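Database export, one record per block. Field names are fixed; values are copied verbatim from the stored entry.
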Amino acid sequence: MPSLTTDLVRSYLKEIGRYPLLTPEQEITNARLVQQMMTIEEQRSSLALQLKREATTRELATSLGQSEAEVESIVQQGQKAKHKMVTANLRLVVAIAKNKSPLLLKMPPIAAVWLRLHIRHESVAIAYPQ
């Protein structure tokens, strides 16, 4: 009789299998959008340190030389792109986890968190080299 953990993992793997993988072009497009979002977020943090408070969207936009609508649009597109990359690449995380850390397979939500961190720190640079 399969254990609860085995059933949960099987269910999780079935769920992530529903999401199609991204094409190389989609990976690059999404990576660029995430990178633009990250640039804005880095500027937001930098500005907050300078101001010693959270910057308003207007202040952020002015510091970037863009309109508030442009900044908000870039952030929204970046968030959507990041979500697409995460959901499309969960199968990749499982494959990596099998080789690097089988414990991740026993805790699927941890695999998703690992992927988010991986995208934030590595995948954007790999998918979209400068």
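Remark 1: The chain is about 80% helix and 0% strand.
Remark 2: The chain has one domain: 4-126.
End of record.
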